[in-house]
Amino acid sequence: ILLGCFSISPDSCTNTRIEDCFIVSGDDCVAVKSGWDEYGIAYGMPTKHLVIRRLTCISPFSATIALGSEMSGGIEDVRAEDITAINTESGVRIKTAVGRGGYVKDIYVRRFTMKTMKWAFWMTGNYGSHPDNNYDPNAIPVVENINYRDMVAENVSMAAKLEGIGGDPFTGICISNVTIGLAEKAKKLQWNCTDIAGVTSSVTPKACDLLPDQGEKQTSCNFPDDTLAIEEVEAHACSYSKRYL
After folding, report:
1. Record's family (predicted)?
2. Known catalytic residue at 226
3. Quick check: helix, strand or coil at residue 185?
4. What is the model's pTM?
5. Of residues 11, 20, 27, 195, which has the active-site annotation?
């Protein structure tokens, strides 16, 4: 169990479990990474098989869970559940840009509670900073199979800001069973969507036209039924005492 003011940043990690954390941060509470631009592409080590659960986050200026922006080695199979965000800028944030390459795919989030947020969902393909000028302008990141389900929010300024990449949209976005309660001074436009594709089901307020409501055709978005190897690892408590001789 972790308690304190910090961020957790798994970078190029396989089989990682983050659980039972209370985090107060001025940055992303959990920032999932895998290298930056040509350096991440060359190293080629993705972050995958990541479990995040039973997390409480306070981050007024950033996200509860961020995927990227340093994601050039790839991010895949992230499973987050039973998350609470309070006074946090956004719930789940995906950040990438042309030149970063790599991918963010097979992301699964469920049972997420948000209280006092700027955005519930936020993703962008225009997070344009680079470490130097040696990046490949033809390195286009892939964002696909993003699943959010069983979520509730209150006092939210804007439901979603979803911005893919022109000519290479973010695809396979699924949002189901989500209720977003709006702030008193909420934005008039609740879903701002460009260059994305996907579906929704039982989402309030109604999503943008690029995420059409499937009604009874689809009841919930995917969340894997299998168990990852890291979930079978037993955590052991440790203690330390200092003796003076």
Report:
1. Belongs to the glycosyl hydrolase 28 family.
2. no
3. coil
4. 0.93
5. 27
